[in-house]
Design brief:
This protein is α+β, with helices and mostly antiparallel strands. Helix content is about 40%, strand content about 20%. It contains five helices and six strands, in the order H-E-E-H-H-H-E-E-H-E-E. A hairpin with an 8-residue loop joins strand 5 and strand 6. Helix 2 crosses helix 3. It starts with 6 loop residues before the first helix and ends with a strand.
């Protein structure tokens, strides 16, 4: 990796700019990257391993400060709130229809892959239960067995928007996770 003498040199080399008046890193208009990303028009191609480190540091430090139960609730709510907004945005744009569970899961799969959250696979969809598998989870892939599942944010991202799309409340249980010794994650999502 090249050595940089200052932060601006690093940003320039990475094809990034610091958005004026904010602390948001966005792709430079001259960048040739083509990977889609979240909302910010300038970030359509910005996905970085740095987000993995950032989320994991939040999980670790938050768990030490507040306990894993509280931190898990915060991450679940954050993922769910963002997901609810994402679903409403896509419904308003006509990209998915109200009630279209498969359409929502396809969008989550696309987002997860392109935003670096993991590789989502739908295993089953029933009236009251959905099972999805997540490989390469941003929260847990490669971590040691901690004795507890830790992919609260990802579970929230799936269920928040699902509730928005269906008009019904859903909850998830992570049945498999790197955090409990597995090499993949699995969520069972049920109607409340």
């Amino acid at each position: 990796m090249p050595e940089y003498t200052n932060y601006d040199e690093y940003l320039e080399n990475m094809g990034l700019i610091l958005k004026e008046g904010a602390s948001i890193l966005c792709l430079s208009p001259e960048s040739d990257a083509t990977r889609p990303g979240p909302f910010c028009e300038e970030r359509k191609t910005l996905v970085s391993a740095n987000s993995v480190g950032a989320l994991r540091s939040i999980i670790i430090t938050g768990s030490k400060q507040f306990g894993m139960g509280t931190m898990g609730s915060i991450l679940r709510i954050a993922g769910g709130e963002f997901s609810t907004l994402r679903a409403a945005q896509m419904i308003d744009a006509g990209k998915i229809q109200k009630g279209d569970i498969q359409g929502w899961l396809d969008l989550v799969k696309f987002d997860f892959k392109n935003w670096g959250y993991g590789i989502l696979t739908t295993e089953s969809i029933e009236d009251d239960k959905i099972v999805v598998r997540l490989d390469e989870s941003m929260s847990s892939a490669g971590i040691p067995n901690l004795g507890k599942a830790v992919c609260y944010y990802e579970g929230g991202r799936i269920t928040g928007g699902l509730s928005e799309v269906t008009g019904e409340k859903w909850q998830f249980v992570e049945t498999n996770c790197w955090g409990i010794g597995d090499d993949f994650c699995k969520f069972e999502i049920t109607k409340i």
